[in-house]
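Subject — a protein and its fold
Fields — amino acid sequence, C-alpha coordinates
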Amino acid sequence: MNILGVSCYYHDAAACLLQDGKVVAAAQEERFTRKKNSADFPVNAINYCIEAGDISFNDIDYIGFYEKPFLKFYRAVVNHLSSYPFSLKNFLDTMPIWLKDRLIMPLVFKKELGFNGKTLFIKHHLSHAASAFLVSPFEEAAILTADALGEWATTTCGIGRGCDIQILREMRYPHSLGLLYTAVTTYLGFEALRGEGKVMGLAAYGEPTYLDRLKEIVTVRPDGSFRLDERFFGFNSGSRMYSCRFVKAFGKARCPEDKVEQRHRDMAASLQALVEEIIITIARNLYSETRMDSLCLAGGVFLNCLLNRRLLEETPFKEVFIQPAAGDSGGALGAASYIYHSILKNPRTFVMRDAYLGPEFSKDRIRNILNNSGLSFKELIEEETARYTARLLSEGKAVGWFQGRMEWGPRALGNRSILADPRNPAAKEILNSRVKKREPFRPYAPAVLEEKASEFFELECESPFMLLAPRVREEKRALIPGATHVDGTARVQTVSNDTNPRFRRLIEEFEKLTGVPILINTSFNLRGEPIACTPEDAISCFKRSDMDSLVLEDFAVER
Protein backbone atom coordinates (compact mmCIF):
# COMPACT_ATOMS: atom_id res chain seq x y z
CA MET A 1 0.00 0.00 0.00
CA ASN A 2 1.31 3.45 -0.98
CA ILE A 3 0.30 6.53 1.00
CA LEU A 4 1.57 9.99 0.12
CA GLY A 5 1.66 12.62 2.86
CA VAL A 6 1.69 16.30 1.91
CA SER A 7 2.14 19.55 3.85
CA CYS A 8 2.12 23.00 2.27
CA TYR A 9 0.74 26.56 2.12
CA TYR A 10 2.11 27.83 5.46
CA HIS A 11 5.84 27.09 5.66
CA ASP A 12 8.24 24.19 5.13
CA ALA A 13 6.15 22.41 2.50
CA ALA A 14 7.08 18.74 2.16
CA ALA A 15 6.10 15.31 0.92
CA CYS A 16 6.54 11.83 2.37
CA LEU A 17 5.88 8.37 0.96
CA LEU A 18 4.90 5.35 3.05
CA GLN A 19 5.00 1.91 1.46
CA ASP A 20 3.34 -0.75 3.59
CA GLY A 21 3.96 1.41 6.62
CA LYS A 22 7.66 2.05 5.98
CA VAL A 23 8.89 5.57 5.28
CA VAL A 24 10.83 5.20 2.03
CA ALA A 25 11.24 8.86 1.05
CA ALA A 26 10.65 12.32 2.47
CA ALA A 27 11.88 15.79 1.54
CA GLN A 28 11.10 19.49 1.87
CA GLU A 29 10.23 21.51 -1.21
CA GLU A 30 12.81 24.17 -0.35
CA ARG A 31 15.65 21.78 -1.16
CA PHE A 32 14.56 21.57 -4.80
CA THR A 33 13.43 25.16 -5.45
CA ARG A 34 16.17 26.74 -3.29
CA LYS A 35 13.51 28.95 -1.73
CA LYS A 36 14.06 28.86 2.04
CA ASN A 37 11.07 27.58 4.04
CA SER A 38 9.04 27.30 0.83
CA ALA A 39 5.28 27.03 1.42
CA ASP A 40 4.48 26.22 -2.21
CA PHE A 41 2.67 23.10 -3.32
CA PRO A 42 5.54 20.57 -3.08
CA VAL A 43 5.45 19.22 -6.61
CA ASN A 44 9.21 18.63 -6.71
CA ALA A 45 9.26 16.84 -3.36
CA ILE A 46 6.28 14.74 -4.44
CA ASN A 47 7.93 13.80 -7.73
CA TYR A 48 11.06 12.80 -5.84
CA CYS A 49 9.06 10.57 -3.46
CA ILE A 50 7.26 8.86 -6.34
CA GLU A 51 10.55 8.24 -8.13
CA ALA A 52 12.24 6.96 -4.95
CA GLY A 53 9.33 4.58 -4.34
CA ASP A 54 9.57 3.31 -7.94
CA ILE A 55 5.84 3.83 -8.47
CA SER A 56 3.55 6.00 -10.58
CA PHE A 57 0.83 8.35 -9.38
CA ASN A 58 -1.70 5.67 -10.28
CA ASP A 59 -0.15 3.45 -7.60
CA ILE A 60 -1.00 5.85 -4.77
CA ASP A 61 -3.80 4.46 -2.57
CA TYR A 62 -4.35 7.57 -0.42
CA ILE A 63 -3.07 11.10 -0.10
CA GLY A 64 -3.00 12.51 3.41
CA PHE A 65 -3.02 16.28 3.94
CA TYR A 66 -1.60 17.59 7.22
CA GLU A 67 -4.51 19.80 8.28
CA LYS A 68 -8.20 20.50 7.72
CA PRO A 69 -8.39 23.49 5.36
CA PHE A 70 -12.05 24.37 5.97
CA LEU A 71 -11.56 24.44 9.74
CA LYS A 72 -8.45 26.60 9.33
CA PHE A 73 -10.34 28.88 6.94
CA TYR A 74 -13.13 29.24 9.50
CA ARG A 75 -10.60 30.32 12.12
CA ALA A 76 -9.03 32.81 9.71
CA VAL A 77 -12.39 34.40 8.89
CA VAL A 78 -13.41 34.62 12.56
CA ASN A 79 -10.10 36.25 13.45
CA HIS A 80 -10.34 38.77 10.65
CA LEU A 81 -13.86 39.72 11.63
CA SER A 82 -12.97 40.07 15.30
CA SER A 83 -10.04 42.37 14.43
CA TYR A 84 -11.85 44.53 11.88
CA PRO A 85 -11.01 47.19 10.68
CA PHE A 86 -7.33 46.62 11.59
CA SER A 87 -7.32 43.26 9.84
CA LEU A 88 -8.81 44.50 6.56
CA LYS A 89 -5.51 44.59 4.66
CA ASN A 90 -4.58 41.08 5.81
CA PHE A 91 -8.06 39.89 4.87
CA LEU A 92 -7.81 41.32 1.37
CA ASP A 93 -4.30 39.89 0.94
CA THR A 94 -5.08 36.36 2.09
CA MET A 95 -8.62 35.60 0.92
CA PRO A 96 -7.72 35.25 -2.79
CA ILE A 97 -5.04 32.73 -1.81
CA TRP A 98 -7.53 30.69 0.20
CA LEU A 99 -10.08 30.68 -2.60
CA LYS A 100 -7.52 29.84 -5.29
CA ASP A 101 -6.33 26.47 -3.99
CA ARG A 102 -6.37 25.90 -0.24
CA LEU A 103 -10.06 25.03 -0.07
CA ILE A 104 -10.02 22.69 -3.06
CA MET A 105 -7.10 20.39 -2.27
CA PRO A 106 -8.58 17.27 -3.99
CA LEU A 107 -8.84 19.31 -7.18
CA VAL A 108 -5.29 20.55 -6.71
CA PHE A 109 -4.06 16.95 -6.40
CA LYS A 110 -6.01 16.03 -9.51
CA LYS A 111 -4.68 18.98 -11.49
CA GLU A 112 -1.05 18.75 -10.35
CA LEU A 113 -0.68 14.97 -10.06
CA GLY A 114 -3.53 13.47 -12.03
CA PHE A 115 -4.66 11.82 -8.79
CA ASN A 116 -8.29 10.70 -8.65
CA GLY A 117 -8.16 8.62 -5.47
CA LYS A 118 -9.05 9.40 -1.87
CA THR A 119 -7.67 12.45 -0.10
CA LEU A 120 -7.97 12.42 3.69
CA PHE A 121 -7.48 15.51 5.85
CA ILE A 122 -5.90 15.09 9.28
CA LYS A 123 -5.99 17.82 11.91
CA HIS A 124 -2.70 19.73 12.10
CA HIS A 125 -1.72 18.81 15.64
CA LEU A 126 -2.94 15.26 15.21
CA SER A 127 -0.54 15.06 12.26
CA HIS A 128 2.23 16.33 14.52
CA ALA A 129 1.33 13.79 17.21
CA ALA A 130 1.25 10.95 14.68
CA SER A 131 4.57 12.01 13.16
CA ALA A 132 6.24 11.43 16.53
CA PHE A 133 4.38 8.55 18.18
CA LEU A 134 3.61 6.27 15.24
CA VAL A 135 7.27 6.06 14.14
CA SER A 136 8.68 6.00 17.68
CA PRO A 137 10.03 2.86 19.37
CA PHE A 138 7.34 3.07 22.07
CA GLU A 139 4.25 0.86 22.30
CA GLU A 140 2.65 3.52 24.46
CA ALA A 141 3.68 7.06 25.29
CA ALA A 142 2.50 10.49 26.33
CA ILE A 143 2.47 12.97 23.45
CA LEU A 144 3.12 16.71 23.57
CA THR A 145 2.91 19.00 20.54
CA ALA A 146 3.51 22.75 20.34
CA ASP A 147 3.95 25.16 17.45
CA ALA A 148 2.62 28.49 16.18
CA LEU A 149 -0.85 27.20 15.32
CA GLY A 150 -2.76 24.67 13.31
CA GLU A 151 -6.47 25.11 12.68
CA TRP A 152 -7.18 26.36 16.21
CA ALA A 153 -4.81 24.34 18.39
CA THR A 154 -1.36 25.65 19.34
CA THR A 155 -0.40 23.11 22.02
CA THR A 156 -1.83 19.64 22.66
CA CYS A 157 -1.40 16.89 25.23
CA GLY A 158 -2.27 13.32 24.34
CA ILE A 159 -1.48 9.65 24.65
CA GLY A 160 -0.63 6.97 22.14
CA ARG A 161 -1.22 3.24 22.51
CA GLY A 162 -0.50 0.82 19.70
CA CYS A 163 -2.02 2.42 16.60
CA ASP A 164 -4.33 4.79 18.45
CA ILE A 165 -3.80 8.42 19.44
CA GLN A 166 -6.04 10.34 21.81
CA ILE A 167 -5.73 14.10 22.25
CA LEU A 168 -6.60 14.85 25.87
CA ARG A 169 -6.69 18.65 25.71
CA GLU A 170 -5.39 21.59 23.72
CA MET A 171 -4.51 25.27 23.96
CA ARG A 172 -6.05 27.43 21.24
CA TYR A 173 -5.09 30.43 19.15
CA PRO A 174 -4.09 33.16 19.90
CA HIS A 175 -2.48 31.67 23.00
CA SER A 176 0.60 30.17 21.39
CA LEU A 177 4.19 29.66 22.52
CA GLY A 178 5.25 29.32 18.91
CA LEU A 179 3.73 32.67 17.98
CA LEU A 180 5.18 34.25 21.13
CA TYR A 181 8.65 32.99 20.24
CA THR A 182 8.34 34.21 16.66
CA ALA A 183 6.96 37.60 17.75
CA VAL A 184 9.97 38.19 20.00
CA THR A 185 12.25 36.85 17.26
CA THR A 186 11.02 39.58 14.91
CA TYR A 187 11.22 42.18 17.71
CA LEU A 188 14.90 41.22 18.05
CA GLY A 189 15.44 41.90 14.35
CA PHE A 190 15.47 38.35 13.01
CA GLU A 191 13.20 36.90 10.36
CA ALA A 192 10.06 34.98 11.30
CA LEU A 193 10.30 31.21 10.68
CA ARG A 194 14.05 31.48 10.12
CA GLY A 195 15.43 33.36 13.10
CA GLU A 196 14.04 31.38 16.04
CA GLY A 197 17.15 29.21 16.22
CA LYS A 198 19.28 32.36 16.27
CA VAL A 199 17.35 33.60 19.30
CA MET A 200 17.93 30.27 21.04
CA GLY A 201 21.68 30.64 20.43
CA LEU A 202 21.66 34.30 21.48
CA ALA A 203 19.91 33.43 24.77
CA ALA A 204 23.12 31.90 26.14
CA TYR A 205 24.77 35.33 26.09
CA GLY A 206 22.09 36.99 28.21
CA GLU A 207 20.38 36.92 31.58
CA PRO A 208 16.60 36.53 32.00
CA THR A 209 16.19 40.06 33.33
CA TYR A 210 12.90 40.57 31.46
CA LEU A 211 11.32 37.33 32.68
CA ASP A 212 9.06 38.95 35.28
CA ARG A 213 7.87 41.55 32.76
CA LEU A 214 7.15 38.85 30.19
CA LYS A 215 5.10 37.02 32.80
CA GLU A 216 2.94 40.12 33.10
CA ILE A 217 1.81 39.66 29.50
CA VAL A 218 1.82 35.84 29.54
CA THR A 219 -0.34 34.52 32.35
CA VAL A 220 0.70 31.00 33.36
CA ARG A 221 -1.54 28.74 35.45
CA PRO A 222 -0.30 25.96 37.77
CA ASP A 223 -1.06 23.26 35.16
CA GLY A 224 1.06 25.05 32.55
CA SER A 225 -1.84 26.42 30.52
CA PHE A 226 -1.27 30.04 29.58
CA ARG A 227 -2.85 33.12 28.05
CA LEU A 228 -1.20 35.88 26.05
CA ASP A 229 -2.32 39.46 26.59
CA GLU A 230 -3.38 40.19 23.02
CA ARG A 231 -2.88 43.93 23.47
CA PHE A 232 0.87 43.33 23.17
CA PHE A 233 0.70 41.42 19.90
CA GLY A 234 -0.54 41.92 16.34
CA PHE A 235 -0.92 38.40 15.02
CA ASN A 236 -3.85 39.26 12.79
CA SER A 237 -4.19 43.01 12.62
CA GLY A 238 -1.00 44.52 11.31
CA SER A 239 2.26 44.12 9.44
CA ARG A 240 4.21 42.98 12.49
CA MET A 241 3.63 40.44 15.23
CA TYR A 242 4.19 42.73 18.22
CA SER A 243 2.28 45.92 19.02
CA CYS A 244 3.26 49.44 20.02
CA ARG A 245 2.37 48.47 23.59
CA PHE A 246 5.06 45.75 23.45
CA VAL A 247 7.63 48.30 22.26
CA LYS A 248 6.61 50.69 25.03
CA ALA A 249 7.06 47.93 27.61
CA PHE A 250 10.39 46.55 26.37
CA GLY A 251 12.03 49.32 24.38
CA LYS A 252 12.81 49.99 20.74
CA ALA A 253 12.84 46.98 18.45
CA ARG A 254 16.12 46.00 16.85
CA CYS A 255 16.39 46.54 13.10
CA PRO A 256 17.91 43.72 11.04
CA GLU A 257 21.72 43.98 10.84
CA ASP A 258 21.86 46.48 13.73
CA LYS A 259 24.37 45.76 16.46
CA VAL A 260 23.16 43.19 18.99
CA GLU A 261 23.08 44.88 22.40
CA GLN A 262 23.02 43.35 25.86
CA ARG A 263 19.31 44.09 26.23
CA HIS A 264 18.66 41.99 23.13
CA ARG A 265 20.63 39.13 24.62
CA ASP A 266 18.69 39.47 27.87
CA MET A 267 15.37 39.48 26.05
CA ALA A 268 16.35 36.28 24.22
CA ALA A 269 17.36 34.68 27.53
CA SER A 270 14.09 35.76 29.16
CA LEU A 271 11.98 34.39 26.32
CA GLN A 272 13.86 31.09 26.38
CA ALA A 273 13.44 30.80 30.16
CA LEU A 274 9.70 31.51 29.98
CA VAL A 275 9.02 28.95 27.23
CA GLU A 276 11.09 26.32 29.04
CA GLU A 277 9.23 26.96 32.30
CA ILE A 278 5.81 26.65 30.67
CA ILE A 279 6.59 23.50 28.67
CA ILE A 280 8.23 21.77 31.63
CA THR A 281 5.18 22.51 33.77
CA ILE A 282 2.88 21.12 31.07
CA ALA A 283 5.05 18.00 30.74
CA ARG A 284 5.11 17.37 34.48
CA ASN A 285 1.33 17.58 34.63
CA LEU A 286 1.04 15.29 31.62
CA TYR A 287 3.18 12.71 33.39
CA SER A 288 1.08 12.98 36.55
CA GLU A 289 -2.01 12.34 34.46
CA THR A 290 -0.68 9.46 32.32
CA ARG A 291 2.08 7.88 34.44
CA MET A 292 3.75 6.85 31.19
CA ASP A 293 7.54 6.65 31.13
CA SER A 294 7.93 7.65 27.48
CA LEU A 295 7.24 11.01 25.84
CA CYS A 296 6.89 11.88 22.13
CA LEU A 297 7.43 15.46 20.97
CA ALA A 298 6.60 17.26 17.72
CA GLY A 299 5.81 20.76 16.49
CA GLY A 300 8.28 23.51 15.75
CA VAL A 301 8.74 24.44 19.41
CA PHE A 302 10.57 21.12 19.92
CA LEU A 303 13.33 22.05 17.51
CA ASN A 304 14.53 23.95 20.59
CA CYS A 305 17.30 21.65 21.84
CA LEU A 306 17.84 23.54 25.13
CA LEU A 307 14.20 23.00 26.03
CA ASN A 308 14.39 19.32 25.06
CA ARG A 309 17.38 18.74 27.31
CA ARG A 310 15.58 20.25 30.27
CA LEU A 311 12.54 18.08 29.58
CA LEU A 312 14.74 15.02 29.98
CA GLU A 313 16.49 16.35 33.07
CA GLU A 314 13.62 17.95 34.96
CA THR A 315 10.54 15.81 34.29
CA PRO A 316 9.83 12.22 35.36
CA PHE A 317 9.83 10.91 31.78
CA LYS A 318 12.57 8.35 31.24
CA GLU A 319 12.63 8.25 27.43
CA VAL A 320 11.94 10.89 24.80
CA PHE A 321 11.45 10.61 21.04
CA ILE A 322 11.56 13.88 19.09
CA GLN A 323 10.48 13.95 15.46
CA PRO A 324 13.56 15.11 13.46
CA ALA A 325 11.30 17.11 11.11
CA ALA A 326 9.41 18.55 14.07
CA GLY A 327 8.05 21.56 12.17
CA ASP A 328 5.37 21.64 9.50
CA SER A 329 7.34 19.46 7.11
CA GLY A 330 6.90 16.58 9.55
CA GLY A 331 3.14 16.93 9.20
CA ALA A 332 3.40 15.15 5.85
CA LEU A 333 4.81 12.09 7.61
CA GLY A 334 2.20 12.35 10.35
CA ALA A 335 -0.74 12.51 7.96
CA ALA A 336 0.45 9.47 6.00
CA SER A 337 1.24 7.48 9.17
CA TYR A 338 -2.11 8.32 10.76
CA ILE A 339 -3.98 7.03 7.72
CA TYR A 340 -2.00 3.79 7.55
CA HIS A 341 -2.03 2.95 11.25
CA SER A 342 -4.82 4.81 13.05
CA ILE A 343 -7.49 4.83 10.33
CA LEU A 344 -6.70 1.63 8.42
CA LYS A 345 -5.50 -0.18 11.59
CA ASN A 346 -2.34 -1.65 10.10
CA PRO A 347 0.16 -2.71 12.79
CA ARG A 348 3.28 -0.64 13.47
CA THR A 349 6.54 -2.24 12.35
CA PHE A 350 8.65 0.75 11.24
CA VAL A 351 10.76 2.78 13.69
CA MET A 352 12.45 5.98 12.56
CA ARG A 353 16.05 5.46 13.63
CA ASP A 354 17.60 7.79 11.06
CA ALA A 355 16.52 10.67 8.85
CA TYR A 356 18.33 9.85 5.60
CA LEU A 357 15.27 9.91 3.35
CA GLY A 358 16.17 12.38 0.61
CA PRO A 359 17.80 12.18 -2.83
CA GLU A 360 21.18 10.58 -3.49
CA PHE A 361 23.40 10.79 -6.56
CA SER A 362 25.54 8.26 -8.39
CA LYS A 363 29.31 8.58 -8.74
CA ASP A 364 28.94 8.82 -12.50
CA ARG A 365 26.64 11.82 -12.19
CA ILE A 366 28.91 13.52 -9.66
CA ARG A 367 31.94 12.92 -11.90
CA ASN A 368 30.16 14.48 -14.87
CA ILE A 369 29.08 17.49 -12.82
CA LEU A 370 32.62 18.03 -11.53
CA ASN A 371 34.02 17.74 -15.05
CA ASN A 372 31.82 20.69 -16.04
CA SER A 373 32.38 22.72 -12.87
CA GLY A 374 35.78 24.23 -13.64
CA LEU A 375 37.17 22.73 -10.42
CA SER A 376 40.19 20.48 -10.15
CA PHE A 377 39.42 17.24 -8.35
CA LYS A 378 40.68 13.76 -7.73
CA GLU A 379 38.90 10.45 -7.27
CA LEU A 380 39.70 8.41 -4.18
CA ILE A 381 39.04 4.78 -3.46
CA GLU A 382 36.26 4.37 -0.89
CA GLU A 383 38.57 3.06 1.83
CA GLU A 384 40.78 6.13 1.45
CA THR A 385 38.09 8.84 1.59
CA ALA A 386 37.62 8.86 5.37
CA ARG A 387 41.37 8.91 6.09
CA TYR A 388 41.98 11.65 3.54
CA THR A 389 39.18 13.85 4.92
CA ALA A 390 40.14 13.23 8.55
CA ARG A 391 43.65 14.43 7.79
CA LEU A 392 42.34 17.66 6.29
CA LEU A 393 40.13 18.24 9.31
CA SER A 394 42.97 17.54 11.74
CA GLU A 395 44.98 20.24 9.94
CA GLY A 396 42.27 22.81 10.67
CA LYS A 397 40.57 22.74 7.27
CA ALA A 398 36.82 23.39 6.83
CA VAL A 399 35.44 20.62 4.64
CA GLY A 400 32.17 20.32 2.75
CA TRP A 401 30.98 16.71 3.11
CA PHE A 402 28.34 15.50 0.62
CA GLN A 403 27.40 11.82 0.91
CA GLY A 404 24.47 9.45 0.32
CA ARG A 405 20.85 10.43 0.92
CA MET A 406 19.92 13.94 2.03
CA GLU A 407 18.58 14.40 5.55
CA TRP A 408 14.89 14.87 6.40
CA GLY A 409 14.33 17.89 8.63
CA PRO A 410 16.29 21.06 9.32
CA ARG A 411 19.45 19.45 10.75
CA ALA A 412 22.43 18.24 8.72
CA LEU A 413 23.32 14.84 10.16
CA GLY A 414 26.49 13.93 8.32
CA ASN A 415 25.37 13.65 4.70
CA ARG A 416 24.99 17.34 3.76
CA SER A 417 27.43 18.85 6.24
CA ILE A 418 30.27 21.32 6.63
CA LEU A 419 32.80 19.83 9.05
CA ALA A 420 35.59 21.26 11.19
CA ASP A 421 37.93 20.43 14.07
CA PRO A 422 36.29 20.95 17.50
CA ARG A 423 39.71 21.37 19.14
CA ASN A 424 40.20 24.67 17.33
CA PRO A 425 39.03 27.56 19.55
CA ALA A 426 38.74 29.74 16.43
CA ALA A 427 36.50 27.26 14.59
CA LYS A 428 33.29 29.13 15.36
CA GLU A 429 34.70 32.46 14.17
CA ILE A 430 36.15 30.89 11.01
CA LEU A 431 32.91 29.09 10.11
CA ASN A 432 30.67 32.07 10.87
CA SER A 433 32.75 34.71 9.07
CA ARG A 434 34.50 32.88 6.24
CA VAL A 435 32.31 29.91 5.45
CA LYS A 436 28.68 30.32 6.55
CA LYS A 437 28.77 34.15 6.49
CA ARG A 438 26.38 34.49 9.42
CA GLU A 439 26.04 36.14 12.83
CA PRO A 440 29.16 35.81 15.04
CA PHE A 441 27.25 34.51 18.08
CA ARG A 442 25.92 31.40 16.32
CA PRO A 443 27.27 28.15 17.88
CA TYR A 444 28.21 24.88 16.20
CA ALA A 445 27.18 21.32 16.97
CA PRO A 446 29.37 18.30 17.69
CA ALA A 447 28.86 14.90 16.08
CA VAL A 448 30.25 12.22 18.39
CA LEU A 449 30.67 8.47 18.27
CA GLU A 450 27.62 7.14 20.07
CA GLU A 451 29.49 5.07 22.66
CA LYS A 452 31.82 8.00 23.52
CA ALA A 453 29.09 10.61 24.02
CA SER A 454 28.80 10.24 27.80
CA GLU A 455 32.56 10.76 28.18
CA PHE A 456 32.28 14.29 26.79
CA PHE A 457 28.68 15.31 27.51
CA GLU A 458 26.18 14.96 30.33
CA LEU A 459 24.09 12.71 28.14
CA GLU A 460 22.88 9.22 28.98
CA CYS A 461 20.77 8.53 25.88
CA GLU A 462 21.03 8.60 22.12
CA SER A 463 20.68 11.91 20.27
CA PRO A 464 20.71 10.87 16.59
CA PHE A 465 18.77 13.89 15.33
CA MET A 466 20.79 16.68 17.00
CA LEU A 467 17.82 17.79 19.09
CA LEU A 468 19.33 17.74 22.59
CA ALA A 469 21.80 20.26 24.06
CA PRO A 470 23.39 18.67 27.12
CA ARG A 471 26.22 20.26 29.09
CA VAL A 472 29.76 19.57 27.99
CA ARG A 473 31.59 17.91 30.87
CA GLU A 474 33.70 20.45 32.71
CA GLU A 475 36.95 18.55 32.21
CA LYS A 476 36.38 18.24 28.43
CA ARG A 477 35.52 21.84 27.58
CA ALA A 478 39.12 22.92 27.00
CA LEU A 479 39.56 19.94 24.65
CA ILE A 480 36.65 20.84 22.33
CA PRO A 481 36.27 24.66 22.60
CA GLY A 482 35.03 24.93 19.03
CA ALA A 483 31.97 22.81 19.81
CA THR A 484 31.23 24.23 23.29
CA HIS A 485 28.70 27.06 23.47
CA VAL A 486 29.27 30.02 25.76
CA ASP A 487 26.88 28.53 28.34
CA GLY A 488 28.78 25.23 28.44
CA THR A 489 26.25 23.27 26.36
CA ALA A 490 26.44 21.65 22.94
CA ARG A 491 23.76 20.48 20.50
CA VAL A 492 24.90 16.89 20.21
CA GLN A 493 24.48 14.35 17.43
CA THR A 494 25.35 10.78 18.38
CA VAL A 495 26.54 8.68 15.41
CA SER A 496 26.09 4.93 15.26
CA ASN A 497 27.29 2.38 12.75
CA ASP A 498 23.72 1.25 12.11
CA THR A 499 22.51 4.65 10.90
CA ASN A 500 25.50 6.24 9.14
CA PRO A 501 28.56 3.96 8.80
CA ARG A 502 30.32 6.28 6.35
CA PHE A 503 30.13 9.35 8.59
CA ARG A 504 31.04 7.24 11.60
CA ARG A 505 34.13 5.93 9.80
CA LEU A 506 35.26 9.52 9.22
CA ILE A 507 34.91 10.36 12.91
CA GLU A 508 36.82 7.19 13.83
CA GLU A 509 39.68 8.18 11.50
CA PHE A 510 39.72 11.66 13.04
CA GLU A 511 39.92 10.07 16.49
CA LYS A 512 42.92 7.98 15.40
CA LEU A 513 44.74 11.18 14.41
CA THR A 514 43.71 13.39 17.31
CA GLY A 515 42.34 11.28 20.15
CA VAL A 516 39.02 13.15 19.89
CA PRO A 517 35.96 11.17 18.65
CA ILE A 518 34.09 14.33 17.66
CA LEU A 519 33.68 16.62 14.65
CA ILE A 520 31.96 19.97 14.35
CA ASN A 521 28.97 19.36 12.07
CA THR A 522 26.94 22.19 10.58
CA SER A 523 24.55 22.27 7.64
CA PHE A 524 25.90 22.53 4.09
CA ASN A 525 24.57 25.96 3.18
CA LEU A 526 25.28 29.65 3.41
CA ARG A 527 23.27 32.09 5.47
CA GLY A 528 19.66 32.33 4.32
CA GLU A 529 19.84 29.34 1.96
CA PRO A 530 18.37 25.84 2.20
CA ILE A 531 20.71 22.92 2.84
CA ALA A 532 22.37 21.60 -0.33
CA CYS A 533 20.37 18.92 -2.11
CA THR A 534 22.31 18.23 -5.32
CA PRO A 535 26.02 18.14 -6.18
CA GLU A 536 25.45 21.39 -8.09
CA ASP A 537 24.16 23.03 -4.89
CA ALA A 538 27.21 21.85 -2.97
CA ILE A 539 29.63 23.10 -5.62
CA SER A 540 27.90 26.48 -5.78
CA CYS A 541 28.11 26.81 -2.00
CA PHE A 542 31.79 25.81 -2.05
CA LYS A 543 32.64 28.39 -4.71
CA ARG A 544 30.89 31.21 -2.84
CA SER A 545 32.50 30.50 0.52
CA ASP A 546 36.00 30.08 1.90
CA MET A 547 35.64 26.37 2.54
CA ASP A 548 39.04 24.73 2.16
CA SER A 549 37.93 21.42 0.67
CA LEU A 550 34.93 19.64 -0.76
CA VAL A 551 34.34 15.88 -0.65
CA LEU A 552 31.50 14.59 -2.84
CA GLU A 553 31.20 10.86 -2.24
CA ASP A 554 34.75 9.73 -3.19
CA PHE A 555 35.68 12.85 -5.17
CA ALA A 556 37.88 15.45 -3.45
CA VAL A 557 38.27 19.11 -4.36
CA GLU A 558 40.89 21.34 -2.73
CA ARG A 559 41.52 25.00 -3.38
